[in-house]
Amino acid sequence: MITDRTIEPRDVPLGGLRGLRVHRTLPSRPLPTIGAWCFVDHFGPTGAPMVEVLPHPHTGLQTVTWPLEGSIRHRDSLGSDVVLRPGELNLMTSGDGVSHSEFSDPGPMHGIQLWVALPEHRRHGPADFEHHPDLPRVGGDGWEGVVLVGRFGGGESRATVHTPLVGVELRLQPGRHVFELDSAFEYGVLAVDGDATVAGQPVAQRALHYLAPGRAALAIEVERPTLVMLLGGEPFEEEIVMWWNFIGRTHEEVVAAREQWQALDPRFGRVEGHDGVVIPAPPLPRVRLTPRTRRD
What we know:
Elements: E1 5-7, E2 10-13, E3 21-26, E4 37-46, E5 53-58, E6 61-69, E7 72-76, E8 81-84, E9 89-93, E10 98-104, E11 109-117, H1 120-123, E12 128-132, E13 137-140, E14 143-149, E15 151-152, E16 155-156, E17 165-172, E18 175-180, E19 186-191, E20 196-198, E21 201-203, E22 208-211, E23 217-222, E24 226-233, E25 241-243, E26 246-248, H2 251-262
Antiparallel strand pairs: 1-22, 2-3, 3-4, 4-11, 5-10, 6-9, 6-11, 7-8, 7-10, 9-12, 13-14, 14-17, 15-16, 17-24, 18-23, 19-22, 19-24, 20-21, 20-23, 25-26
């Protein structure tokens, strides 16, 4: 089993975003998932807004969008048309196939984009979309939290997930804070806007610290007011093949999804308001896609 470690972010230019670069910590080479969380992008703070992410497809996953500053207009092939603001959550379940677009208002942008891998029993189902403007707020001495998914600190989110999972925004005042954990879960702590000490280990801003299952409590120390994201879940045992915006189980599944998207197959529907313009899929690599595995 993989042991506790810190994952440094890598700088990634995001296609379709004008001048916007993101700091990606998951997936990483040694660690493809934390629970079913399979993708963590931290974008901003930046004055270069996410002006246009044209329609693009997804399979086999849920997108979890959490803005910290700025607003994002979400439209999808289900007919959803929602403006997402800080403190609100968008949760889109791709099932077997969905497409969506995201446009931001002018101004500063800062936020977290997360993906959750869907388990076998749900990944072939219909697509769905949820907008949660009122999430549970929890807190204690020197800290406040918002529960995006799952249960934490006496609060439980109504957001729908399909494996045991938790996601929490924590705003910490200077000092040492101890949180109860589910010992069956593995966890990751993302230091969003400042350095932190997580379980005794220094974690630089934007890095993600991984904690293996078996821990019933966690101490986080900060020297100034700091925001961190706590992500966790039961280890996701299913092997996944992840490429571009698709999650499948085999190379052939991903190739088929790409071909269908390029052909504007009805599998992915249509996002209204873009005159049929979409983001084309990039070329496939010249190697066979294989499942992502953990490497200690």
